[in-house]
Amino acid sequence: MKFAFTSLFATLAYTLVAVAQPPLQTTINFDDRYCVGSTSLQTTACSTGENGLITRGFPTFGSLPTFPAIAGSQFVEGFNSTSCGACWEVFDPNTGRSVFLTLVNTAPTGFTLCTDTLLALTGFNRTNVPNSIPVEARAIPAADCGL
Ligand SMILES: *[C@@H]1O[C@H](CO)[C@@H](O)[C@H](O)[C@H]1NC(C)=O
Ligand SMILES: *[C@@H]1O[C@H](CO)[C@@H](O)[C@H](O)[C@H]1NC(C)=O
To answer: Short name of one Pfam family for this protein (predicted)?
Structure first.
């Protein structure tokens, strides 16, 4: 009993620390390729392998519950990353809007979103949208993205 209790307490403490993490300051950019629902996940780093999304029953971008709110991210290190399918909340302090994104691929910095998703979040349009927009981001449970 004592061991079980200690282990449960450690789990709770760890969870509380994780929840209390301040949001990460990062940037977002956009790519229309993330807006195409028929695109196979075979074209991404999150294809097959134990952590791949095809392996977990999601063959295309459009098959993911949050689509078109999906993203490439620097937090996906490469093929078979344990961050494949991770759910992140991205908050735009300028609009006060946020979006839950399912990670599907790598990206050089921050997060790369479907253009329409980024415009809805930031309030920019295709004429005036900057190449890089500062945001706050935090990892949330995958269940919040329906995975
Ligand atoms: C993928 O990563 C997991 C660990 O997260 C590992 O067990 C597995 O062997 C890796 N490779 C493939 C092809 O699944
Ligand atoms: C984009 O937004 C700017 C600033 O609000 C506005 O002046 C411009 O007309 C908009 N362009 C389009 C194509 O909607």
So the answer is: Cerato-platanin
Q: Is the CB of 49 under 6 A from ligand 1?
A: yes
Q: Which atom of ligand 1 is nearest to the CA of 80?
A: 1
Q: Which domains does the chain have, with CATH numbers?
A: 23-145 (2.40.40.10)
Question: What is the value of pTM for the model shown?
Answer: 0.87
Please name the helix (run of DSSP H) or strand (run of DSSP E) that holds residue 115, with its range, or none: helix 115-122
**C-alpha neighbours within 13 Å on the C-beta side of residue 122:** 23
131, 91 contact by CB (below 8 A)? no
CA–CA dist 137, 101 (Å, integer): 10
**Protein residue with its CA nearest to atom 14 in ligand 2:** 125
Q: Is 74 helix (H, G, I), strand (E, B) or coil?
A: coil
Residue 77 tokens read as: 């290190």
Nearest ligand, CA 47: 1
The residue whose CA has the least distance to atom 8 of ligand 1 is 50
